[in-house]
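Consider this one:
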Amino acid sequence: MTLFVNRLTHLDASLWCPERGLMGASWRVDAELDGELGEDGMLFDFGEVKPWIKSRLDQGADHTLLVPTEAPGVSVHDCAEGLCVRTESPYPMEVRGPRQAFTLLPWPTITPDRLADWLATELMRQPPARVSDIRLTLTDEPIEGAEYTYSHGLRRHAGNCQRIAHGHRSRLHVWQDGERRPDLEADWARQLADRYLVDEADIAEGGEASFLGRLTSRYTADQGRFALSLPRERCVVLPTPTTVEHIAAWLAGEIARDTGRATRVQAFEGIDKGALAEVRP
């Protein structure tokens, strides 16, 4: 017997891509579970399937940096913060943080199919009673129009969002005079694509922090100490924390200032959630 649950949850993370560098990702998670029926006529109570799988994804890969350790130029070392991940191509990056902020995968590149198989194998290490196999599918949200991926860290967040390199793949909607502006959506999506959004307050100062045109973000949160260094051109600096609420307000303000028109922005944080902001010049 097979039990299936579509749209069980979403997985949001950042990953290192050998071609694109640091990028955000958001996948819909579907699940299938094989097994035998119990005396209650069920394989696994639907009311328990979602929290059981979601809690384990939340404790594992969700809101981490997915690192393909066999990709060219990637190295991983112990450090005072926990782990240090360094990359060389397509550009240099260094990320430091507690071990739980990283998911290390012995592959040359991260793909949704391979990640789904790995996650299912991890779930089967301690399967529920009567469950003999688990299959997961990770699917990109179909998006017509502007979309972009970004990474960030939220120092003040109480949960796993405080990790300095986690991210999302998101829609972007912009209205002026009650009408959608696909041109503005596409323009800003291009500007933000595969960028790291930095809270200005988290930028480290000093010669080492800005060495050779690099920007370093550093902070201490409940989970530990974090630091990330990237080429400055891969970063977008906001004067506020990089929550989706502030991203929406910042975008609305920038577009209203550039165009001289009242602007309403709907910024998504991954799939099916986000914030709305409106600014008048």
In short: The longest strand covers residues 2-17. DSSP finds four helices and 17 strands in the chain. Helices lie at 46-59, 112-123, 182-192, 244-259.
